[in-house]
Amino acid sequence: MPDSSNSISSFLKRAIWEKRRSTVMANTTELKLGKKLNEGKTKQIFELVDEPGHVLVQSKDQITAGNAVRKDQMEGKAAIANKTTSCVFKLLQDAGFKTAFVRQHSETAFVASRCEMIPIEWVCRRIATGSFLKRNPGVKEGYRFSPLKMEMFFKDDANNDPQWSEEQLLAAGFELAGLTIGRCEVDIMSKSTVAIFEVLEKAWATQDCTLVDMKIEFGVNVTTKEIVLADVIDNDSWRLWPAGDRSQQKDKQVYRDLKEVTPEAMQMVKRNFEWVAERVKLLLESQGKGRVIVLMGSTSDVAHCEKIRKACGSYGIPCHLRVTSAHKGPDETLRIKAEYEGDGIPTIFVAVAGRSNGLGPVMSGNTAYPVINCPPITPDWGAQDIWSSLRMPSGLGCSTVLSPEAAAQFAAQILGLNDHLVWVKLRASMLNTWISLKQADKKLQECSL
Fold first, then answer.
1. CB 390, CB 375: distance < 8 Å
2. Tell me, what CATH number does 121's domain have?
3. DSSP H helical segments within 96-182, as ranges?
4. Which positions fall inside the PurE domain (predicted)?
5. Is the residue at 22 inside a domain?
6. CA 34 to the chain's CA centroid
7. Is the pLDDT of residue 394 over 50?
8. Before 2, cis peptide (omega within 30)?
């Protein structure tokens, strides 16, 4: 007698599959495709008629190696690659990096800003392996680069993508979407590559997986004229070693290393790609969500505290405001403190008290959690009041930060040690500050000339 539960399970699976398929087909018909702008080994790019400045990036079920000397069809690869790319770009975009990614459209395609691509592959390496060893005889596999090793390769299939120097890139004088690729632009791409690698390295570490190396590409957004991270970042783009063990590698290198391509071997490659696609979704999840508790001595300090809360929000950190006075109600202060000590959530207290700051020292002496003093300094007695935050009795370790935005940043740096989603926002903010200074200097130099 047949197992009815198995029959029901098969029916449900089929129904779910049909629903997903119809949804994908419906999504595809929503977009009116224009001409095909480009086709590579693993994707096609189409103009979007109803979305000026946007394109559709459609993945293919093809896997290649050695500039397509080896190529095979791998059923389902387009969906796997698209899922991986979409998750990676969402992580980077949420952190604050400028990318071409707009949204995932279907299982196998995403919408992106239209870019003129800069024909350079930027390669960033943490561990020496692969082609680097062939080009640098004597270096042993596993050598760790600190700082990261940067390389660039000119995209030229006919000549096997030769390695280029910065000088060659500058001498080429590429002009794309009205932007000349000069020293400023090269430096921005170089700095961005390092920051992007560090962010993905930090994210993959949460899954006990070592990001060995990675290649990315940049383009010039035809609308904004900005350099943005473009193309795709999927399992063709990097080397991943779970637990730092090359024998467990999950990336395309497994396909490259095949002595013979058999159906069984291709299933193994596909399982590796699926493993990456499933775990890359976890990179979007916090591993240790923390919070900031701002204690103010008076409601007259609310405006100051709101600046702290707003800045915490920019890092994705929940921030709660409380009113208590360590001078006038120490028992209530300690009761409020106790509310946040027993639930296992990483917590940082920020003490906001003018005049004589009793909040910070009392909190620091009664909790093992970090305490930051952020007193609202006034022009009349500020120079005197600040000493109550700076001069602490022995055994107290609270720090003092005058700027409310800087106090939030300091809290984020502490919480970012155990929450990669906070850390990546800090890293992107560092990069964006550097880029804004670089562009300001370029503009000033052009004005001077």
1. no
2. 3.30.470.20
3. 131-135, 166-172
4. 290-437
5. no
6. 31
7. yes
8. no
